[in-house]
Amino acid sequence: MRTTVRTAILLIAAVALIAVSGCGGGSDQDSAASAASSASESSADVAAKDSTFFAMLDIAGVTVTDKPRFIAAAVTLCEAMSSGTSYTDASSAIDVGLDETGNAKVASAGIAAYCPDQQVKMATG
């Protein structure tokens, strides 16, 4: 079952990334939430990533209740994975008030938007 969920999420992430690539925009509140972890990026880059993240969650049917909390969870996931934590361990730490499937969708969208270089870890666990 877990492999099926992971495969479905990988497919959702891939489709969503293609669908929203090149999208920009986002509110100042969204951008401010992720600016602390990406101070070296331009505000336009941060806003584009935030916009991609929320568009992917929308496509996946996830209701976002607290944008800064969702961004923080995704950025923390990316930082953990970039530091060597496995996808399984990093994604299991996601807690934005959703069930396991919802949290997995947040993890998938977060990786696609904020750290696409870590996507390979989704397939390997």
UniProtKB/TrEMBL annotation:
Keyword match Signal: yes
Signal peptide location: 1-21
Domain of life: Bacteria
A Pfam family: DUF732
Protein name (Swiss-Prot/TrEMBL): DUF732 domain-containing protein
Occurrences of domain DUF732 (ranges): 49-117
Record's keyword terms, sorted: Signal
